[in-house]
C-alpha cells in the first residue's frame, strides 16, 4: 500500500536569526551560567521532521516559549505542537525530543514532554506514551525506530 | 646548419598520421617537427616533399591527418621568417584545400595560421586573403560542421575582419548574407562569443547610411535578439573558455555596434524590462545604458519618454516580493531589487547626460512635470504625510530623492530648474513651524516632531547635494552662476539662513524628546545637509564666513557637550573631519583660518584639560579624527598631547588615575598619531623633541622623587621607549647622550673607575634612592629603544651601572643589558670583539654567584630571596637577548637555570638542621619556580623590550633551535629527578619551552616527549598557578591530534592520553581547559575504534559529568563529545 504523507504541504516558517549570546562580560571562572530556555531550545530546534526536510523550528513545532524550565527542581517541560491534528508522527517527534534531551541534559533533570493542549486528536494517549519510561525504552529497542530517530537527530550535532 | 636525416624525423610524421596512436603522441610529434623547423634543421620544402603522399592520397582519413599536420606545424612556427614564395605556395595549397570537405580541418588550421602571421616574418598577401574569403564563401557551410571546426571558421572570419578590413570592405550583400547564415542557430558558447564579435566588426565596417549595415541590420538583429538575455548556467568548473559575463558583454558590444539596430533593439530592451525575471531586467538595463551612449541623440530622442516611463516603473516598483518566486530567499530578492534600482538610476543618468536634445526642457517636462512625480512631491508637502510611517514610504522617498538628484546634478540649467520648481516650497514647509523657541516648547510638551517633515528635509538635503555636485564641476566660472538671473545659487542663498537654522536645530534639541522611530534618519540627514553646505568649493559657496563659522560651531558643540548620544557624536565628528579635509582639497585659505579657530583649537583643548565630564577615550578619539583631516592639524594634536603629558607629570596631586591618564595619552600618541604622521609626512622631529622635553622635565630631583613614588615611572618608561624607537640614529644619539649626562651628574658612583673594570662585590651600593632608580629606569628605556647602529657613549660605564642595579634586583636594568647584548650596540670602544664577551662573562659570573651565595652561607632573609628572584628573571632577559641573536653564551645561562631548577635535589643530600632546612626549602622552591618562569621569559614574545619595534636582532627559527637543544637535556633530567618538587619545576620549565616552540617542530619530536607532556598535564593540573601553562600544553596536544604523525604517536599511548584528558574535563581553574579537553576527546573519533573503544566508558562518564558544567560552552562541547563516543558502539 502506498502511504501518502500525513501533512503533504506544511507551512514553512522562517528560521529565526540565531540569538548570539553575548560573551560573558565577567571573565570570572567561577561565575555560573545556568541552563536556560534558549539553551534547551538550541538543543532541539534543529531536529529534522520525520517526513519533511525541515527542522522542527521551521515547522513551528517547537518554539522557545514552549519550553518551561525549573533549574532548581531539575524539571524541564517541552510542549510541542504537531502540524496537523491527526498527525501520527507526533509520537515520533516527541520521542526524538526526548532522546535528544536525555543525551544533552545532565541526568539530574526530569524531562516532561507533551503535545500542546488541543493540538492533537489523541492528546492524552500521546502524552501518556511519551512519558512512560518502559514504552520509551521499548521503542528504542526497535532498530527501525531507532534509525529513524538517529536520522532526525543528526542535524543537531553539526 | 646541419640538417637532420629524413630517417630521424619521418617517424614523427608517420606517428601523427596514424590515427590509432594516442593523442599525447600526436602532439609530441608535432612539437618535435615544429622544433626542428624552427631550428632550421629541417626545411619546409623537404618536409612537404616527403609528405607528398600523405597530402594527396585519396584516403580521406590519411589525407586529412596529413593536411592537419602541415597546418599545425605552420601555426607553431609563427615567429620564423618565411619567404614570399613559400607563403604563396602554402596559401595556394590551403585555399585549394578549402573545397576538400573531408579534410577541411587541416585547411582551416593552415589558413588561420597564415592569416595570423605578423608583418616582418613574411605574411600572406592581400590578394590571397581575398581568395581565402571567396573560397570560404563558396565552399564552407559553417553550420554543417562540427563545433571545433565552426570555432576555427569564426576565428578565421574575425581575424580577417580585424586585420584585413580592406578586403571585406568590398563585400557585397551576398557575402553578408553568408555571414548571417553562418551564425544563425549557433549554440556553442565559444563559437557564439566569436560570432558576436564578427557581427560587431562587420556592422562597424559599414557606417554609411545607404551601406550594407543599414540594409542587413534587421537580419542580423533578428539573429542576435534570440540570444538576449544571455541565459547560461555553466560554472567555472566546466572547463569552457567562456563565462556568462563574457558572452553577455560580447552580445552587448554587438548590440551597440551600429545605430541601425536602434529601431529593433530599443523596443526589445524596453519590452524585456517588464519581464519578471530579475536577470532579464538587470541585463536590459545594462544594455539600454550602453545603447543610449552609442546610438546618439538623434535616434534616442524619440524613445526618451518610453525609456523614462519604463525606468520609472523599475525605480518606484514598491516591493521586492514580486521576485520572491524566481530568486529563492527573501535576501536574494532584496539584493536583486537593490541592484535593479541602482542599474535603473545609472541608466537614467546616462539618458539625461547623453540625449542632448535641442529641447532643453525635454527631461524637465518628462520627469519633473511627470504626474506621478508631481503627486509624490505634493503628498510630501501636504500635512498628512509629513511623518514617515513605514519602511516602504522610506524606500519610495529615497527613490524619489535619487531621481531628483540625478536630474539636477546633470547640468547647471537642470539644477536651476529643479530648484526653481521645488526648493523654496520645501524649505518653507520646513520653516513654517520651526521657530526654534516654539519647537523647544513643543518638544517639552511631548507633542513635538509632528511638524518635522522628513520628506521635505530629505529632498531639500538631496537638492543641496546636487547643487554641490554642479558647483564642483563648474567652479572655475562660478561668477557667471552667481550673476545669472534666477540661478540655483540665488535660490539657495535666499533660503540659506532658514535652512541652516533648521538643520542645526536637530543637533541642539534633546535626543530623548523626539520619539519618532526614524529619529536616527532625521539626525543623519541634518548632519549630511550641514556637511554639504560646509564643503562647497570656496569660490562659489553660498555661505558667508559667519554662516560657515556657525555650522562649525554647532558641530563642535555636539562634540564637546553631547558625547552621551554616541550616534550623533560620531556623525558630527565624521562630518567635521570631512569638512577639514575638503579645505585641503580646495586650498581654501579663509576657511582654514575659521576651521582652526572654531574646531581644531576647541577639540585639541579637550585633550589638554585633565578633568571634564567627557571620557578620555572619546576626547582622544575626537582629536585624532580631527587630526586626520590635515597634516597641520595632526601636528597640533601631537603637540597638545605632548603638552598634556608634561603638565600631568608636573601636577602635584596625581595618584593612580593620573598614571592611567598618562598611559592613555602615550598610547594615543605613539599608537595612532605618530604612525599617521609617518605615513603622510614621514617626519619624526616630533618624537625627538618630545623625548628631550621629557628628559628636561625629570631633571629636577623633587620631580623624580614624585614620579618614582607615584607609579608614573612605568608609563613614562613605556612612552620613552616608543619615542626612542621611532627616532633615526642621529636623533637617538642626541637622546642617549643627554640621558647619560643626566645620570652621570646625579649618581655618585665612581664612574671613572668603572670605565675599565667591573666593580667588585663590596663596592656595590646596597640600595639606591628612589630618584636614582627612576633615573636609571629612564636611561634603560632609552637604551631599549636604540637601533643597533646608534653609537652610545661610555658603554662600559653604562653596562657597569646597569649591572649594579641588576644585582640589586632592578628589572629595567636587565632590559637594558639584554638590549645591549642583543644588539652589540655600535661603539668604538669595542673594536676587538672579545671585549664585550669578556664583560658579559663577568656579569654572568657575578649573577650566578649572587644567586647561589646564600645557599651556602645559610643566611636566608626573605628580602634576599626576593632580590634573587629578580636577578634570576634579569638573567632570563639577558638570556633572551642572547638567544634571539643566536649567541652561544645562552647555554651558560640555561645550564645555570637548570641547576637552579634542581637545587633542592642537591641540597637534600646535605645534612642540615631541621628548621633551617625548612627555610631553605621554601626559598629554594621559589627560586626553582622563578627559574622555571625564566624559561617562559626566554621563549615568549615580549612587548617590553627585544622586539621588532625596538629593533632587536632576531635570528630566524631561534625558538625551534632552542627547543631541540634543550629537549634531550630536559628529558634526561626529568628521568633522573627523584623528588616531586624538582620534577614539577622541571615540568614547568619544559612546559614553557614546548608550548612556545612552533607546533610542527614539537610534533616531529612527539614520540619522545608525548609521555612527558601527558604526565606534566596531569601533575601541573593540581596547582592553580599553572593554569595558563596547562592550557598552552593542552593546545599543543590538540595540535598533535590534528597531525597524522602526532596521531600515530598518540595511538601508541592512547590509554594514558585519554585518561589524562578525562581528568582535565573537570579541571576547576579554567573554562577553556575543560572545553579544549572535550574537543580533543571528540577528535579521537577519527582513531581506529578498536583502539579507543576500551576507553569509551570512562570518557562517557566524564562527558556526562560535564553536561552539568557551570559554563555553557563546556556543556555544548560535552554534548558533542558524548554523542561522538556514544556512537562508537
Automatic annotation (TrEMBL), chain A:
Alphabetical UniProt keywords: Chromosome partition
KW Protein biosynthesis (keyword) present: no
Gene Ontology BP term (one): chromosome segregation
InterPro entries: FSCA_dom_sf (IPR034904), MIP18 (IPR039796), MIP18-like (IPR002744)
SUPFAM superfamilies: Fe-S cluster assembly (FSCA) domain-like
Domain MIP18 family-like stretches: 39-111
Family of the protein in this entry: Belongs to the MIP18 family.
PANTHER family linked: CYTOSOLIC IRON-SULFUR ASSEMBLY COMPONENT 2B, CYTOSOLIC IRON-SULFUR ASSEMBLY COMPONENT 2B-RELATED
Protein name: MIP18 family-like domain-containing protein
Organism, as annotated: Setaria viridis
Automatic annotation (TrEMBL), chain B:
Pfam families, alphabetized: MMS19_C (PF12460), MMS19_N (PF14500)
Entry similarity comment: Belongs to the MET18/MMS19 family.
Location of the MMS19 C-terminal domain: 710-1083
Gene that encodes it: LOC101752499
GO cellular component: cytosolic [4Fe-4S] assembly targeting complex; nucleus
Cell location: Nucleus
Primary localization: nucleus
Any Gene Ontology biological process: protein maturation
Protein keywords: DNA damage, DNA repair, Nucleus, Repeat
Name of this protein: MMS19 nucleotide excision repair protein
Species for this entry: Setaria italica (Foxtail millet)
InterPro entries: ARM-like, ARM-type_fold, MMS19, MMS19_C, MMS19_N
